[in-house]
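As described in the Methods, two query proteins were run sequentially through the folding procedure within a single session, without resetting any intermediate state between them. The first query and its resulting structure tokens are shown here.
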Amino acid sequence: MRTNFNTNRRDFMIRAATLSVVMPTLDACASFGNEQDTPLPSGFGPHSTAAEVTAGIDLGGKTALITGCDAGTGYETLRVLTLRGAHVYALSRTLEKAEAACASVTGPGVKGDATPFACEHTDFASIEACADSIRKLGSTIDILICNAGVYGLPKLELVDGIEKHFVINHLAHFILVNRLLDPVKAARQGRIVIVGSDAAFKQAPDAGIEFDNLSGQHSYTPSKAYGQSKLANGLFALELARRLSRTGTIANVVHPGWVMTDRMHSFLLENQVNPEAAEKVIKTPSQGAATICYVATNGAVQKANGQYFEDCNVAIPGGHMRDTAMASRLWAVSEDLTRDYLIQAAH
């Protein structure tokens, strides 16, 4: 049975509480619950779109890369970056999906171009092959966006003995970034954008990364597993930024907001939650891609390194997101888990 919701503020708070019980991840959207449209310091806010934050920016001559290009915020980011003139390396699980995405965002009136690549995040050899194919092109990479991800797997799934959220959301990008760090550092000012989430400090285990339970076999909760993988994204960006501090390359993590993708829509229906009830706390793909595109392209971000962005502005994350010791340990553990695929990595 579906619940009917009114739209006044009191009922909105009740509605948000109901949604947080049915789907814990929506509780992470509290900051987006502010219905005001007042711009934040950057001039943009929670309702800004990717097209708006990149208006007037010419990306001609720049090369970008994005994972998870065929749906949701990834597709919208691909569309807007090509629209602004960038040549985008578009990565998806299969070449067919990547090709379809590229074909649909390029053509008359679009200044940029897109090249499709297959990159299966549960197959480290696929990531290695994809990265090596890109390196062979010999181009610098001005923008590298780690966007692909998975969330809410109802049952524990393992990839080579490691919990699947952690593999896809963190380890896969750890390999990709390390293998492509040279062409990013060779750019005039390379930017690495890790798409994280405020679930990193709202849903992750209280102790942070559970290094003794990366298999998830001691205990498994979908929301905590997702939160842990997003904390790993934040800590990866933090340690990467430290390692890049004496170069011209920057690395930052962004929370795009909770976005109404096909997967989100299906999840709401499966749990008998009316998608209209979540209108105030769930963004459109265009709004979700705004912070990604802002951090990837805006001149105001050129000196930001190791920061957390939300709603197109620097924000202060909670939990363990600024734990430098945990970030250093995560890097070492990630190296151990992926060492066979980091032979050519730059450090």
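Immediately afterward, the second query was submitted; its sequence and tokens are:
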Amino acid sequence: MKLHISIAVASTIAVSATAFAIGRPAIGARSAGAALQRAPASPQTRSHSALRMASPEEFVKAEIASADVVVFSKTFCPFCRKTKKVFDAMEGVDVKYIELNEMDDGNEIQDALLELSGQRTVPNVFIKGKHIGGNDDTQRAKREGTLEEMLVA
């Protein structure tokens, strides 16, 4: 399942569940950018106002945990498009694209990515919670066959 999003509706549900599990109340909603693009529509597409993360760092961590592959991206970035093509060509991969340039707090999220991964540039790719790098790293992993190995592990 591939998700193209600019606002993390799916993660809001996951984070709400996490907040519920640890006894914290939900905290409002992230500002809406482009809608979740997914077919067919699911209950996750109905609400854009489930939860606002307390911080960009918490948002980033929740997003990374929400799918096998998470790509922090910008819609106008040619390197992001190349990275997306790699994952779009793979069957059965749970991919989430987060378009930072369509989010009100995209710069703060990029700062949080720098703190977490050491990389502020996009694409910023995580596989199964592990930071693998950007487009060059993704292309290399695909070429060497290690990308598929990371997804199976």
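The first strand starts at residue 2 and ends at 5. We note this only descriptively and draw no conclusion about the first query from it.
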